[in-house]
Amino acid sequence: MQFKNIIGQQAIKNRLIQSVQNERLPHAQLFYEHEGSGGLALAVAYAQYANCLNPGPDDSCGTCSACHKINKLIHPDIHFAVPTAADSKREKLARTSDYAGIWQQSFLNNPYLNLNDWFADLNFETNKQLFLSVEESADIIKKLSYKNFEARYKFCIIWCPEKWNTSAANALLKLIEEPPPATIFILVTEHYDQIISTILSRTQLVKIPRLTQDELITVLQAEQIPIEKQASLIHLSNGSYRLLQDLMHESQDDNYATDFLVWMRLCFNPIKTYAPLLNWIEGFVKKKREQQKHYFAFCMETCRECLLINYADTSMVRFTDNQFKGLSAFAPYINQNNASEFVQLFSDALYHIDRNANAKIMLLDLSFKIAKLMKIR
Ligand SMILES: [Zn+2]
Question: For 164-197, what is each residue's pLDDT tens digit?
């Protein structure tokens, strides 16, 4: 991964390059990004630049043996820790090294991947929760205790540190505070507020901003997206290249929006439509847990969009034309008198899904609560 392969973020790139050139690499950094800003890709490009045998003024060479190995994610001194889960069927512990091949493929396939993408690639059954385990911490401690094989700087890139359970994080605190010489920790998160304070206090914060309009236009031009579509895609993507990828390839949110309207119709009079509602719920519980969470996050977003349609300038609505068409008729059902309760219901649902609630019972209950709320006009 070279800096030139990462969209925009020139200020961050300069800062990272400068730290290598001055040989002043902070030993523990927290990359705080918005989804799709390239935090993980920047971490890998940084590790590559710091270890390139023939670095240029603004990028690694891309051809030396170190670049070659880091590019393929097979360098023995560049370690990753990403959320996983144990899998007795495949005889795997909850450690990145147990899934190294899949991780390598996932990242190389899309360096802007998000946790949903990673979960899908792991191909777990739907009720698995991904986390950073005590075994993972033990693995990191072991790997970092070896002398560097060949690198100038050993890197440990930890993705989604908010997924650490407390004891696993505590096991690493000392190491993060005082790593062995020439060892660099990079933690990459989208959820700064969920990182435990003892980690925050031991890392230097690097804020990675959303991609700018100009940066995204460059992408759309390279993808030969017609000019008349560009403005709406940029508006919808909200500075996330990951989201833009979805939007460019017929976003799954188009399906979510259709699905949301189907569900709301069934909720309108759930006694009358009990059988199809149960069918809808059966379909929903078959989805992967991470997808279910994503769906409820989408529902919360939809409440906001409904309020915008009802009361504000519709140019601020982020949905695509297709989504907007269906939603504008429904929007009055979510209004100033019930919107906060709607959001609370979806937020509770997300919370319960995250804690392994019985999704079928929860959704049935939720559907009846929605039926009540929709009567408030
Ligand atoms: Zn190189």
Answer: 988 899 999 999 999 999 999 999 999 999 999 9
231 Cα–ligand 1 center, Å? 38
Residue 314 lies in a domain: yes
Distance 100 CA to ligand 1 centre (A): 23
The answer to whether residue 156 sits within a structural domain is: yes
Q: How far is the CA of 140 from the centre of ligand 1 (A)?
A: 25
Query: Are 9 and 114 members of one domain?
Result: yes
Specify if 239 maps to a domain. no
pLDDT digits (tens, 9 = 90+) for 288-314: 777 788 789 889 989 988 998 888 777
63: Cβ–Cβ under 8 A, 6 or more apart, which residues? 54
Residue 254: per-residue pLDDT: 63
54 and 164 in a common domain: yes
Asked, for residue 194, whether it belongs to a domain, the answer is: yes
261 in the same domain as 122: no
How far, in Å, from the CA of 2 to the mean position of ligand 1?
9
Residue 251 above 50 pLDDT?
A: no
Residue 289 CA to its chain's centroid (Å): 15
Query: Residue 115 maps to which CATH number?
Result: 3.40.50.300
Measured distance CA(323)–CA(304) in Å, rounded: 14
pTM > 0.90: yes or no: no
Phi, psi of 53 (to 5 degrees): -80, -15
Tell me, what amino acid is at 252? Q
Residue 171 belongs to domain spanning: 3-209
